[in-house]
Amino acid sequence: MLELRGWRSRKGGCWEEYRTEKLQSFNRSIHQIDPEILPLLNLINSFPDFVTLSSCSGRIVIMDMPDFGNKSESVFLGKWHGKVDLEEVWEAIKKGKRVTWFIMHPPILHVACRDMQKAEEFMSIARKAGFRRAGVISPSRNIVEIFSLEKMEMVVAVNGDPVVTKESLKIQLEFAIEKLERSRSRLLRLENELRRLEANGVGKSGRLNIKVKEPS
Question: Which of 75, 76, 89, 147 is 20 to 30 A from 209 in CA distance terms?
Fold first, then answer.
């Protein structure tokens, strides 16, 4: 996952400067980007009105926490961006020393936009692709966040002692993988929507000006 930072001034050519800076950061961090989401991020970045920030294709993690939500002191015991073997997950759980969580995170994208109009247009595209959660998280910087609603969280061990059986974990893992794949289908739909615009020459012109019907 890449670092989320925004731009502070939009006077003169600052959008171009900001976008160039973020694209350079994107290229430097290319090895940190989830391969599953890289084609979509490259496509978004081909539109001069957008630039991608922090993004993740979704993942399954085993995390050790002193308290729920205390990310600063949390430790990843396992992290996978696709299908994973039950034994590998079980071994990660056994490494826990505090409260150990099994979590499925859905895909999430952050996109900075040239102005609020472009932010609204990007949100419309995302909603058409099936992302029910699409909103501006930084009005002063026109940063859009979109993510899928599929998510799973459950305690699987306390102080190193599993509170689930391997058989029940197998069922939960199957559901998590299914949810992850379902949520990623929206990434493909978003990519298809953007490629349709690109085929119509929108990306080359550097301006979006579209109206799409919101999902019912």
Answer: 147
